[in-house]
């Protein structure tokens, strides 16, 4: 059983939802990333999505694009992202870490080396935005053979056939994109989200995390009433972006704690 599965099983027993915050590796600099990861956990994160910065993203809104640009300008690379995970693992062996990014850096490194390094440093899952399930069967199989969870996106426009493809290729959890657009671009339609999630659970058989458009603790709590996990990224990046360097860790911890407390006010069964 993977660390991600362990987290969701434990939360299900507790009738709690998973909080999955996102930050970009190397933003505002490489030295700050590990302390920020620990701050996320201290604030109540159950799983961390760690963004691999990329120069030409297709799903990231302007906030996360700026974070990637800052990280790349300071020399962040996929290999250095692995170094960050290894450093985090020196003092945290429990919290799952999911790498979220794009195919180009992985293909430049080579799938075999990527998977090997991911296992070596303690990565738990991989979400590649531009790897749809029907085009990455070998990559997904390589991850699963190594004990890693391939995580896929579903969107409001996804057809039932795509649900089946994700069910066959994915594990860990599903990332449901709550709106048509890029990260941080609009407010979500909670009614639509609530209607879609049971259909995804029934067809895919995995916990469903909802992201894109979650800006505050109140929205996170509303999403937690219908989803198994809440994914929040752009709003955390804004907190980092607007903080003096010596206050970013504290402000991120406080923000995440507020989201966690709001979500913990929601009780009920999960998938």
Task: Describe the 3D structure.
There is one protein chain. This protein is α/β, with parallel strands linked by helices and 271 residues long. The chain has one domain (3-263): Aldolase class I (TIM Barrel, Alpha-Beta Barrel). 50% of the residues lie in helices and 14% in strands. The protein contains twelve helices and nine strands. Helix 2 (30-43) links the parallel strand 1 (18-24) and strand 2. The longest helix is centred in the last third of the chain and has 16 residues, at 248-263. Residues 181-185 have low confidence and may be disordered.
Please provide a brief summary of the model.
With 271 residues, the protein is of the alpha/beta class. The protein has helices at residues 3-14, 30-43, 62-73, 78-89, 103-109, 111-121, 137-145, 160-169, 190-204, 217-224, 234-242, 248-263, and strands at residues 18-24, 48-51, 97-101, 125-128, 149-150, 152-154, 174-177, 208-211, 229-232.
Secondary structure layout plus pairing:
Blueprint: H1 3-14, E1 18-24, H2 30-43, E2 48-51, H3 62-73, H4 78-89, E3 97-101, H5 103-109, H6 111-121, E4 125-128, H7 137-145, E5 149-150, E6 152-154, H8 160-169, E7 174-177, H9 190-204, E8 208-211, H10 217-224, E9 229-232, H11 234-242, H12 248-263
Parallel strand pairs: 1-2, 1-9, 2-3, 3-4, 4-5, 6-7, 7-8, 8-9
Task: Note the main attributes of this structure.
271 residues; alpha/beta; TIM Barrel; nine-stranded parallel β-sheet; 12 helices; 50% helix
